[in-house]
Specification:
The chain has about 120 residues and is mostly helical. It is built from 5 helices and no strands. Helix content is about 85%, strand content about 0%.
Length: about 120
């Protein structure tokens, strides 16, 4: 796959190479930072806030589960720990799905740019 990428870069003009380099693939932390930009940045901030609260709730519930001797309270605290851990896991999956969708949108925009450039060159 890298050989095809190199051949494509060789075929592009200097201006096109500079434009394509702007749309190079990002690293993991860059994709995570991209969640804090755009129209839905507030959703990310709110999710992280609730994720921190759920994480604290998990640790507190797990602690109470291990120190409680009453069976009914053990079931209650264990259920709270399980629920908060599952919610944190679901939020992490949601973050990964958002990062992946942003990556796909970025690639589609790269293809759109290449098609627009190609149509301008052929016109």
């Amino acid at each position: 796959m890298k050989d095809i990428d190199l051949e494509i870069k060789k075929a592009l003009s200097d201006e096109d190479q500079a434009l394509v380099s702007h749309f190079e693939e990002l690293g993991l932390f860059s994709y995570f930072k991209s969640l804090f930009r755009g129209k839905d940045a507030w959703v990310t901030i709110l999710s992280i806030f609730f994720g921190i609260i759920l994480q604290i709730l998990f640790f507190y519930s797990a602690y109470k589960f291990f120190v409680t001797t009453d069976t009914n309270l053990k079931i209650l605290w264990g259920g709270g720990a399980w629920f908060s851990a599952m919610m944190v896991a679901f939020m992490k999956v949601w973050f990964w799905m958002r990062m992946e969708s942003n990556r796909v949108i970025r690639e589609i925009k790269r293809v759109e740019l290449q098609v627009a450039r190609l149509s301008l060159n052929n016109a």
